[in-house]
């Protein structure tokens, strides 16, 4: 796309109230914006009206909510549990991977983007800063407790448990329990002793 046509597209988008910066989104076309708006409305409808529908409440956590996450772009394994009022980064759902038997309790927020503050200085316009995009991976059998926020780039290891109300900014190793703001590992999950070992 020519530079003149590109700047006309940006001027038009700004005129209708869409402030896409070239640093943030790269080359944005009007058709690309239309497709993104359609996806945003479709995903928004699924997340707002279907995700917590009282009509579907018996099958929401294990059937409907995982299907919705898959529909909006998440990589979803088998037999996962998704609690009520879970918020995901719908615009970057393709960066979220949830393995088999993972549990996401109610009120959890999974965030895959954040402003890149590495070069932010006095006098800079915050709105023109780009984003850092990083995936989130909830490994097999992990649990994210209620009202927890998981930040970009975090992997929660196999069988790991993150306590309620935590703020997860670093990876949580497999078979550990982590809690807090920021979340820190407080213990290892022990191996089960067999009868012959007792």
What's this entry about, in short?
The chain has 198 residues and is of the alpha/beta class. The chain contains four helices and 16 strands.
Describe the model.
There is one protein chain. The chain is of the alpha/beta class and 198 residues long. The protein has 4 helices and 16 strands. The strands form 4 sheets. It has a 6-stranded mixed beta sheet. It has a 4-stranded parallel beta sheet with strand order 1-4-9-12, covered by helices on one side. Strand 15 (176-180) and strand 16 form a beta hairpin. Helix 3 packs antiparallel against helix 4. It is globular and about 75 Å long.
Helix and strand topology:
Layout: H1 3-15, H2 22-25, H3 30-50, H4 60-71, E1 75-76, E2 81-82, E3 87-88, E4 96-98, E5 103-104, E6 109-110, E7 113-115, E8 131-133, E9 136-138, E10 143-144, E11 149-150, E12 155-156, E13 161-162, E14 167-168, E15 176-180, E16 183-188
Parallel strand pairs: 1-4, 2-5, 3-6, 4-9, 5-10, 6-11, 9-12, 10-13, 11-14, 13-15
Antiparallel strand pairs: 7-8, 15-16
Helix pairs in contact: 3-4
* Lateral arrangement of strands in the main beta sheet: 2-5-10-13-15-16
The overall number of domains is 2
Q: Average pLDDT value?
A: 87
CATH-derived architecture of the largest domain: 3 Solenoid
Say which CATH homologous superfamily of the largest domain is assigned. Answer: Hexapeptide repeat proteins
H/E topology pattern: HHHHEEEEEEEEEEEEEEEE
Relative strand content: 15-25%
CATH class of the largest domain: Mainly Beta
Q: Specify the overall morphology.
A: globular
Major β-sheet annotation: 6 strands, mixed
């Amino acid at each position: 796309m020519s530079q003149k046509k590109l700047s006309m597209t940006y001027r038009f988008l700004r005129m209708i109230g869409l402030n896409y910066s070239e640093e943030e989104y790269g080359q944005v076309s009007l058709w690309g914006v239309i497709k993104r708006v359609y996806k945003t409305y479709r995903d928004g409808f699924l997340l707002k009206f279907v995700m917590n529908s009282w009509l579907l409440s018996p099958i929401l956590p294990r059937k409907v909510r995982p299907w919705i996450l898959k529909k909006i772009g998440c990589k979803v394994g088998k037999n996962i549990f998704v609690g009520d009022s879970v918020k995901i980064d719908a615009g970057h759902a393709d960066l979220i991977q949830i393995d088999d038997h993972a549990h996401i309790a109610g009120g959890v927020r999974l965030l895959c983007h954040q402003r890149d503050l590495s070069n932010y200085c006095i006098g800079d316009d915050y709105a023109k800063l780009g984003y850092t995009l990083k995936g989130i991976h909830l490994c097999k059998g992990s649990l994210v407790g209620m009202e927890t926020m998981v930040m970009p780039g975090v992997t929660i290891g196999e069988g790991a448990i993150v306590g309620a109300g935590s703020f997860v900014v670093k990876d949580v190793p497999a078979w550990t329990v982590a809690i807090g703001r920021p979340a820190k590992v407080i213990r290892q999950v022990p191996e089960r002793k067999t009868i012959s070992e007792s």
